[in-house]
């Protein structure tokens, strides 16, 4: 690899270790902007200022706003996979209840300051065509598929008894998760997580346990 | 009232009948833009072009982008009240099931091309301060209050038997409605309304009727 002698570039080359660190900082800042202001507000100028590099330095990593938006979606998906979906089907945290607890904790820890922007951006881009809208739809499909897979597994292991329709149950769980995310962003009231846990408990336990009056308690 | 002799204005005065018609056209176009592209994309220039009047004509009705955003939120709330909340507590359509059916029909009829933008905009504005963010939060509070009131009434009339916790049940119903709205926008798959009706049926009927395997059927 040759040394980059271009004086106009203040960004390390993409392949280098320093380049990877810069890229990580760019993606973290991009997720912050996208989650606080929306994916469409994620301009090269705004992002360069947030990271503290020049616009030309940013162009060493992304050649267009669209490429940047796609990389930001890919990054938030990686964070979701690592934090929520990762241990699905393996080890002691393999069950449906554990998955849902990780998902809610992911929202509670506010991994991204303005929240996970996927569903909001997906609605924002719903009337548009193109790779960004397609990537958002794909990310949403993955979320629902993770839930369906977990319900199917819970049917098999006996965690869900009697068995439930995976597609319908995934929709109902996704509803609770998405509304919890939206309301926790807007209302900033942590009680919404108690409501979510009660709703999930009722949904998963309704057929073999009578509903209790306890709310928001965690094992 | 004096005649507006300002030659720069091509918009009728606010109080006149023609002025009211222009205002109605402006608000309809504003809701369309806000629901398709987001409330923040609702610029005076973009809206003037959509309605076919000059920017100065638009300024006869709204003196700022913020005033326009607030009027657009107020308009979508009026449409919600007229189409969804109106008959709550009166006549044959007074019950909780009827309310939920009107709400889903409101989404299905796509009253606004890109959908009702309230919850998406509320999340978009969640990290901001100011009257627009406050108006969005208030609109969301009203949605949840309508559901709570309907659950309380259903407890009283015996429509819900046994009685349910109004706050918790309102949260769960709101979850289904918001996710249905989001997914119907993104996926354009009408089957999501079947899922929503099944979820609502299970939620409201779970305690006194056994779940059935029928899906998406309407009475």
What's the topology here?
2 copies of one chain form a homodimer.
Chain A: H1 17-37, H2 44-51, H3 55-59, H4 65-85, H5 96-108, H6 118-124, H7 131-157, H8 166-187, H9 191-205
Helix pairs in contact in A: 1-2, 1-4, 4-5, 4-7, 5-8, 5-9, 6-7, 7-8, 8-9
**Which CATH architecture of the largest domain in chain A is right?**
Orthogonal Bundle
Annotation, overall tally of beta strands of chain A:
0
Helix content of chain A: 55-70%
CATH superfamily assignment of the largest domain in chain A? Tetracycline Repressor, domain 2
Rounded radius of gyration of chain A (Å): 20 Å
Query: Distance between the terminal alpha carbons of chain A, to the nearest Å?
Result: 55 Å
Would you tell me which CATH topology of the largest domain in chain A applies?
Tetracycline Repressor, domain 2
Order of helices and strands of chain A: HHHHHHHHH
Number of helices of chain A: 9
How many domains of chain A, as an integer?
A: 2
Our estimate of the beta-strand percent of chain A is under 5%
Low-confidence segments of chain A, ≥5 residues, pLDDT <50? 1-10, 206-219
Q: What structural category do the secondary elements of chain A indicate? A: mainly alpha
Gross geometry of chain A = elongated
Mean pLDDT of chain A: 82
Query: Which CATH class of the largest domain in chain A is shown?
Result: Mainly Alpha
């Amino acid at each position: 690899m040759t040394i980059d002698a271009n004086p106009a570039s203040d960004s390390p080359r993409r392949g280098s270790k320093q380049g990877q660190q810069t890229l990580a900082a760019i993606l973290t800042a991009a997720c912050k902007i996208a989650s606080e202001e929306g994916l469409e507000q994620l301009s090269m100028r705004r992002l360069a200022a947030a990271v503290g590099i020049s616009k030309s330095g940013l162009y060493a990593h992304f050649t267009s706003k669209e490429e940047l938006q796609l990389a930001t979606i890919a990054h938030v998906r990686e964070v979701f996979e690592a934090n929520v979906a990762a241990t699905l089907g393996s080890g002691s945290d393999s069950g449906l209840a554990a998955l849902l607890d990780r998902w809610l904790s992911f929202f509670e820890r506010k991994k991204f300051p303005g929240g996970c922007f996927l569903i909001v951006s997906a609605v924002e881009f719903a009337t548009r065509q193109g790779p960004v809208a397609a990537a958002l739809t794909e990310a949403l499909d993955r979320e629902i598929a993770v839930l369906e897979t977990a319900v199917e597994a819970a049917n098999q292991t006996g965690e869900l008894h009697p068995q439930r329709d995976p597609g319908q149950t995934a929709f109902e769980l996704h509803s609770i998760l998405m509304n919890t995310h939206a309301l926790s962003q807007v209302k900033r009231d942590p009680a919404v997580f108690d409501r979510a846990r009660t709703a999930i408990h009722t949904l998963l336990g309704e057929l073999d346990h009578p509903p209790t009056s306890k709310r928001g308690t965690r094992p």
